[in-house]
Amino acid sequence: MKYITAILKVTICVLIVCPAGAMAQAASSPTSASSSVAAPAGVDGPILQKALEANAKGDCPADLMGPGLLEACHQQIAVIQPMLTAKGKIIKLDFLGFQQFPGGQAEMWRVTYEHGSQVWGINVGSDGKIAGMGTRDQ
Asked: Is residue 35 part of a domain?
């Protein structure tokens, strides 16, 4: 599982140009919406869920993913699909906050499955497609 996690960390870092270790930092200490200044709730949970459900079926949905992520998905789906299939159906998503990356801001989500959970970061471009996403397995 460490290998899968490393691949996914590299994918999000490459696609949204984050520095090494940013995904680990984001997953362990995302900006919380409970700070003294009210932050808006995340809006990209539904697109994240659709992408994860498609990936669990072995699909890389071109209607959801930008070109860079789509290419990375095709290269990694053989590793991603069994990981997500083992987790089972998605039970719920909880918005954790935002993480700033050099390539833009990512929303951080805890995804709870039938058999475990993961923290996912997602960055959606102005075209409405996912520019980058990645996880740190929990």
From this structure: no
- The closest of 51, 128, 127, 130 to 84, measured between CA atoms, is 51
pLDDT in tens, 47-81: 999 999 999 999 999 999 999 999 999 999 999 99
pLDDT in tens, 102-115: 678 899 999 999 99
The boundaries of the domain holding residue 45 are 2-29+40-137
Residue 22 included in any domain? yes
Residue indicated by tokens 């200044």? 37
Assess if residue 58 is contained within a domain: yes
For the full predicted model, state whether its pTM sits above 0.85: no
How many structural domains comprise the chain?
1
CB-based contacts of 24, cutoff 8 Å, min separation 6:
9, 136
On whether residue 105 sits in a domain, the answer given is yes
* The two three-digit tokens of residue 137, written as one number: 């397995």
Two tokens, residue 120: 């996912």
Query: For residue 3, how many C-alpha atoms fall within 13 Å in the half-sphere facing its CB?
Result: 5
**Residue pointed to by tokens 């050099």:** 102
